[in-house]
Write a structure and sequence with these properties.
This protein is α+β, with helices and mostly antiparallel strands and 143 residues long. Helices cover 46% and strands 24% of the residues. The chain has a five-stranded antiparallel sheet.
Length: 143
C-alpha cells in the first residue's frame, strides 16, 4: 500500500512540475516582447504594425517596431525600439523621437551597433507580423 502511494505521489509531482512549467511558455518571446508595448493600448488588437525587425544580443533582444496611427492626434507612423530581457521576460520601450533628443542613449547605441554586435537579426514577414501581433494581443488580454 505504501509503495502504491509513493508511486502515485511521484507521478503527481512529475505531472505538476511539467504541467506548470509548460504553462509559462505558452507565448513566444516575440509575442511577450511586442505585448510589452501593446499593453498600453485600450484595444491592442487594433494596433496596426507595419514592420518588425529583431536583433539578438548577448543579454537582450531589441525589436524595431513601426506602427500606423492609432489615434487622430498621432503622427502617421510611430517608430520605436522594444528591449526585451529573456531572463526576466520584461521589456523597456524607447521611441525614436525621444532618442533624437538624447533619451535612452544606451539603447540607441546598442541599436546602432547591431551590424557588428548582434548575434542574429531577423526582419519579420507580413504573415509573421500578423501572427506575432495577434499572439501579443491575446497575451495582453490574459495578463
Amino acid at each position: 500500500m505504501s509503495k502504491g502511494i509513493r508511486i502515485i505521489s511521484v507521478l503527481l509531482i512529475a505531472v505538476t512540475l511539467f504541467g506548470f512549467s509548460s504553462c509559462g511558455k505558452k507565448y513566444s518571446d516575440d509575442a511577450i516582447a511586442i505585448a510589452g508595448y501593446l499593453q498600453y493600448f485600450d484595444k491592442p488588437e487594433n494596433v496596426i504594425v507595419n514592420k518588425i525587425e529583431k536583433c539578438v544580443f548577448a543579454d537582450e533582444t531589441i525589436y524595431y517596431v513601426s506602427r500606423s496611427k492609432y489615434q487622430e492626434l498621432e503622427a502617421d507612423e510611430i517608430e520605436l525600439l522594444i528591449v526585451y530581457y529573456p531572463s526576466s521576460r520584461t521589456t523597456k520601450t524607447a521611441f525614436f523621437l525621444d532618442m533624437e533628443y538624447g533619451m535612452h542613449a544606451d539603447i540607441k547605441a546598442l541599436w546602432d551597433s547591431r551590424d557588428t554586435k548582434a548575434t542574429s537579426t531577423h526582419v519579420f514577414s507580413a504573415d509573421e507580423i500578423k501572427s506575432v501581433t495577434a499572439e501579443a494581443s491575446e497575451y495582453c488580454s490574459k495578463s
